[in-house]
UniProtKB/TrEMBL annotation:
PANTHER family: DUF503 DOMAIN-CONTAINING PROTEIN (PTHR36441:SF1), HYPOTHETICAL CYTOSOLIC PROTEIN (PTHR36441). Coiled coil: none annotated. InterPro entries: DUF503, TT1725-like_sf. This is DUF503 domain-containing protein.
């Protein structure tokens, strides 16, 4: 089972693309270190207060994939610099 989530976010207290990239890289790095998943910034590259992450995981069941994706979402949500505005799950 392949689970995928599109996670659109607002980034607070950044005034430039450089500051945005710092926040995004930090989150991506933490996700990759803590969980067995793939993650990338997939949209809003030139807008400094928005981003979208694509997060994918391969698991033996949909339940297990969903658990891993929810852990990733919780990690993002725990970061005070960023707010999740939209999440879309897909299953393959």
């Amino acid at each position: 089972m392949i689970g995928y989530v599109l996670c659109e976010c607002l980034i607070y207290d950044v005034q430039s693309l450089k500051e945005k990239r710092s926040v995004v890289k930090s989150i991506i790095s933490r996700l990759k270190q803590r969980f067995n998943l793939s993650v990338a910034e997939i949209d809003y590259h030139d807008i400094w207060q928005r981003t979208a992450f694509g997060i994918a995981v391969v698991a033996i069941s949909q339940t297990r994939a969903e658990q891993e994706l929810q852990k990733a979402i919780k990690l993002i949500d725990a970061d005070e610099r960023i707010e999740i505005t939209k999440t879309i799950y897909e299953w393959l």
